[in-house]
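ok so for the tutorial part 2 we go from a plain amino acid sequence to predicted structure tokens. step 1 is just haveing the sequence, like this:
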Amino acid sequence: MNKIHPATVSLAARLTGLPKVALLGRPNVGKSTLFNRLIRSRRAITHDLPGVTRDRMEGAVLRRGLPPFVLIDTGGVSLDAHAAPQPGPVGLRGLEAEVMRQAERAMEEAEVLCLVADGREGLTPLDAHLADFLRRTDKPLLLAVNKVDGEERADLLLTEFYALGLPLLPCSAEHGYNMGALLEELAGLLPPGAPQSSNETDETALPTDGTADEETPETAEKAPMRLALLGRPNVGKSSLLNALAGEDRMIVSPAAGTTRDSVDVPVQLDGVPGILVDSAGVRRRSKITDTLERFSVNSSIKSSTKAQLTLLVLDGQEGLTQQDKRLLELLDERKLTFMVLVNKADLIPTDKLREVERSYRQALAYCPHVPLLMVSAFNRRNLKKIAPLARDIMQESRLRLNTGRLNRLLEDMLQERQPPLIKGARAKFHYLTQAETEPPTFVFFVNDPERVNDAYSRYLERALRRMLGIKHAPIRLRLRGRRAAEKV
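step 2 — the prediction. this is what the tokens look like for a chain of 488 residues:
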């Protein structure tokens, strides 16, 4: 499980209520590249193909001496002279109205708007129409002319953009040109009274991915729950996130593959602050034919490894597929904390519901500790059970026991069932200790690990779970030989 950086807890609290800046523009002008550059993290997927970004994404901009703010990345918007969405590139075809709604929500939430244009392509009618639309908000507006690779080209490329009558700044997100000036301009447009960043809120206080190697029980308890949704395309991950968040935060479409970025969404889960991470659907590797989908799938898997708990979403109508089984095996092998949500339960006939649930539980027989809920994003069936169950599982994952108690438990386990005879001899256990938490990792020191077969290892795990009350969290067992025991 991911270790929570101590500064992340205080940062998450400070980000609440911070002013927001929204990046807006037509497709493929470099908004996501600019977003990544300013937040100093490769959060948004960038690609040469237009229409990659669909949902809005948020990230913190923290610089010493400047007010901290939240930056919002949005999908590309194409408007006509009447501010009506126009057909976008192939990547956004059919989603233009949804992308526009997400952009409008970002505009409503933001205190400052930043229109991003492509300096290489020059001023287009779509840029002009969007600029007119943004002016109507009466919010501070800055024009960032992107893809200007240096001062020597700025005068040549900026000339026609002055016709918009907006304060503008040339920059290059790809090469980092004028990023400092852009930050200062945006910070200067923020509402007065915004606090200045200190050493604690500066980006150097946090790793770029929000993780670290150390955490304390205090920070772990106070940190918002971070739950990642994982599953095949079109199983209803975005619909579930919207239902849990209580708003249309993610674009939902019958077409598979709508979500591409892994998007962090702050929510209230049963009255407790949390973060839900929506991710792209994971197809079989043999069906992935382009680099863009490969980036999305890698991002989805990475989100699960960094989350405190993964919500594996399955389609209740389709049954357990081979890809579902692969994802289950992946989570189980890596000892990641997860629960299974069988979605679309509202579409299953009532008289068949128990039978379907029983079939899924039978398929999970090799990892019986994993909880399973029959849920529905449509009628919110069992959604209230997710947060309390997640908290219980995470509390189990943080369990820490001293060696003395563990050795007393070891004696009880050996008396209850002695090791089997292997090649005419039994394994002799020296002692038991706990090496790690999240997941709890227990090390058995034994004279010969080869005399401990799989069946007895499974018994040891079941006994530990029963004696320690670990119902759902994964646990890891390790066997160490005599030489390792002598070194301790």
